[in-house]
TrEMBL record:
<dbReference type="GO" id="GO:0003849">
    <property type="term" value="F:3-deoxy-7-phosphoheptulonate synthase activity"/>
</dbReference>
<keyword id="KW-0028">Amino-acid biosynthesis</keyword>
<comment type="function">
    <text>Stereospecific condensation of phosphoenolpyruvate (PEP) and D-erythrose-4-phosphate (E4P) giving rise to 3-deoxy-D-arabino-heptulosonate-7-phosphate (DAHP).</text>
</comment>
<dbReference type="InterPro" id="IPR013785">
    <property type="entry name" value="Aldolase_TIM"/>
</dbReference>
<dbReference type="InterPro" id="IPR006219">
    <property type="entry name" value="DAHP_synth_1"/>
</dbReference>
<feature type="domain" description="DAHP synthetase I/KDSA">
    <location>
        <begin position="52"/>
        <end position="347"/>
    </location>
</feature>
<dbReference type="GO" id="GO:0008652">
    <property type="term" value="P:amino acid biosynthetic process"/>
</dbReference>
<dbReference type="InterPro" id="IPR006218">
    <property type="entry name" value="DAHP1/KDSA"/>
</dbReference>
<protein>
    <recommendedName>
        <fullName>Phospho-2-dehydro-3-deoxyheptonate aldolase</fullName>
        <ecNumber>2.5.1.54</ecNumber>
    </recommendedName>
</protein>
<dbReference type="Pfam" id="PF00793">
    <property type="entry name" value="DAHP_synth_1"/>
</dbReference>
<keyword id="KW-0808">Transferase</keyword>
<dbReference type="GO" id="GO:0009073">
    <property type="term" value="P:aromatic amino acid family biosynthetic process"/>
</dbReference>
<dbReference type="GO" id="GO:0009423">
    <property type="term" value="P:chorismate biosynthetic process"/>
</dbReference>
<comment type="similarity">
    <text>Belongs to the class-I DAHP synthase family.</text>
</comment>
<keyword id="KW-0057">Aromatic amino acid biosynthesis</keyword>
<dbReference type="GO" id="GO:0005737">
    <property type="term" value="C:cytoplasm"/>
</dbReference>
<comment type="pathway">
    <text>Metabolic intermediate biosynthesis; chorismate biosynthesis; chorismate from D-erythrose 4-phosphate and phosphoenolpyruvate: step 1/7.</text>
</comment>
Length: 359
């Protein structure tokens, strides 16, 4: 009796819900199109080391990861980077500023999933184009002299862009995922692990511990070939407090509680605080207030707070992605952001707080 399934039977079991498959460019091809030359690679490496020095307390400045919630228009993001660059230089005695250059958006349910996934903003999903735009922008941001900060969401895309990234994040929705913890263990830059949307900090602490050690997982190599990746473990993973669905966790008591969890886990007692998301209840007008309160803790001598995250763009607020009307230039299409002037004032206050702590 022939036990092999008949072709018609195979058609009933294989890729039943895949509409079509499209070839993906290889990481090497993309690197060749938008190369990171030796000088720029040196800048990325120096940026990562500078971030690690702040996280480890070797450098007493505050790390600030600031920029749009998501990049949907590379031109506006580059203009933002051009404005941020001189400010980063001016405030560099107190702040180490990296730019949020986020291309991947984890969604609570549904929504635009970021520029790599959908650069056309229309669901057409031209990932090859998305990767090209993302890498080109990351190289440009590096050329300007700013370390770039990205969230890593898709486990395949890091091979395309990670060499340009100075600081990475695993988001609140994926911090419990083994896939993301394994990925973090092999990433070359410091990785911030966010507390879960329901507020669980213990989950992020678990993620830091899990990513610190070697793992073996499947992925792709630089040629785009399937590969078994053996990682070394990432010693520079750290906690990011982002508040929760039920309220903020940037206040002194919450920070002390988080630091105690790190201490009990035998991890360095250092936290980055996200002034947006649950900490601002997604109200961009709350972000400067939150940042000021974080700054007050820093100025009062809190050594555990080593960084702050801000969502900021050229125009304040947010807009819906509406195909029937033109988008406002430089305004977020995901979470609401602080506008440029408020951002500059907020950065200045954070710088003063870092200097006060040093004094
Ligand atoms: O930072 C962006 C958003 O908070 C995140 O992607 C989740 O967004 P959503 O809850 O609107 O899906
Ligand atoms: C999605 C983000 O944050 P969180 O994971 O904290 O919701 C973000 O920073 O873009």
């Amino acid at each position: 009796m022939n036990t092999l399934p008949k072709p018609t039977e195979q058609a009933r079991v294989v890729d039943r819900r895949i509409e079509k498959t499209v070839p993906l460019i290889t990481p090497l091809a993309l690197h060749d199109e938008f190369p990171l030359n030796d000088e720029l690679a040196g800048r990325v490496a120096d940026g990562r080391q500078a971030v690690a020095d702040v996280l480890n307390g070797v450098d007493d400045r505050l790390l600030v990861v600031v920029g749009p919630c998501s990049v949907h228009d590379a031109k506006a993001a580059l203009e933002y980077a051009e404005r941020l660059r001189p400010v980063a230089e001016r405030l560099s005695d107190g702040l180490l500023i990296a730019m949020r250059v986020y291309f991947e958006k984890p969604r609570s349910t549904l929504g635009w999933k970021g520029l790599i996934n959908d650069p056309g903003l229309d669901g057409s999903g031209d990932v090859n184009r998305g990767l090209r735009i993302a890498r080109q922008l990351l190289v440009q941001v590096t050329q300007l002299g700013l370390p770039a900060g990205c969230e890593f969401l898709d486990p395949i895309t890091p091979q395309y862009i990670a060499d340009t990234v100075g600081w990475g994040a695993i988001g609140a929705r994926t911090v419990e995922s083994q896939v993301h913890r394994q990925l973090s263990s092999g990433l070359s830059m410091p990785i911030g692990m966010k507390n879960r949307p329901d507020g669980s900090i213990a989950t992020a602490v678990d993620a830091i511990k899990a990513a610190a050690v070697p793992h073996v997982f499947t992925g792709i190599d630089h040629d785009g070939a399937p590969a078994i990746l053996h990682t070394r473990g990432n010693p520079d993973c750290h906690l990011v407090l982002r508040g929760s669905d039920s309220g903020p966790n940037y206040d002194a008591e919450s920070v002390a509680g988080a630091v105690e969890l790190l201490r009990k886990a035998g991890l360095p007692e250092r936290v980055v605080i996200d002034a947006s998301h649950g900490n601002s209840r997604k109200d961009h007008r709350r972000q400067p207030v939150v940042a000021e309160e974080i700054g007050a803790q820093v100025a009062a001598g809190n050594q555990a707070i080593v960084g702050v995250m801000l969502e900021s763009f050229l125009q304040e607020g947010r807009q819906d992605l509406d195909p029937t009307r033109e988008l406002t230039y430089g305004q977020s299409i995901t979470d609401a952001c602080m506008g440029w002037e408020t951002t500059e004032q907020t950065l200045e206050k954070l710088r003063d707080a870092a200097i006060a702590r040093r004094g």
